[in-house]
Amino acid sequence: MLVPPVRHPGYTPRRAAGLTAYERALARAGFVQIAGIDEAGRGACAGPLVVAAVMLDPRRRSGIGDIADSKSLTAAAREEAYRQVMTLAVSWHVVVIPSEEIDRTGLHVCNIAGMRRALAGLSPQPEYVLTDGFPVRGLGVPALAMWKGDEVAACVAAASIVAKVTRDRLMRDLHTRYPVYGFARHKGYSTRSHMRALDAHGPCPEHRRSFANVGGVVRDPTDLETPGEIDPDVPGALDLEAPGPMDLEAPGPMDLEAPGPIDLEAPDATDLEAPDPTDLEAGDPTCREN
What we know:
Layout: H1 21-28, E1 34-40, E2 49-56, H2 75-88, E3 89-97, H3 99-105, H4 107-120, E4 128-132, E5 143-146, H5 149-152, H6 154-177, H7 183-186, H8 192-201, H9 212-215, E6 238-240
Parallel strand pairs: 1-4, 4-5
Antiparallel strand pairs: 1-2, 2-3, 3-6
């Protein structure tokens, strides 16, 4: 007679159990400190890749509210969710990887390395890790890769919010240096207006030249208009725990620790971001955000 496999029902999250179901199931299995990791800017053709790791307070995790899928939220809702995460986080760490490093080593390599570095920046270290999308080897702790993790796990959704808000602020800073591209609006993704500006002015130092739609653009030598200047001597990725506006002219890697909740001012009048829930230029079917 066939004996069905024994499966502890307490370790299986129910579909209708909400955003914290996986964390609660892991807690019943003995894992209390659980971190989520997610990135923002993977699909953009300009600007940095930002990876965030967040470990929420298990006693207050249920207070995180409805923040699933940061890309579906408006800019104002993301800023409010960011403040929530900062209040509920036990530990968090952000890694910013510039476009030149993406061109040098490859997007996926940078993504995996960024996840490892973001996790390494957490203190205390988690007992279990949930990642969005694909598995990451060499984390040093048990981990589970989750399809659409930012929609089903609170800690991954929190990491998604931190990564997205951090990157949006950095792109608004880059807009002041390169206003002709409209970075404050499309955040470096391949919208029609961005592609038109790229064709007209050629790539700037923040464009990822390893991307086909950037590398194939040859700037007209008669076009004397320059979009701005940026320090080309920034050597590599930055690790920071303060995802607000930062000085991109710093000569080397930088670690900033946040001793407690941070409430950074909301975007100013230069934030041209449309309230479209996709956070992309309206009507552009070619634009996808990761």
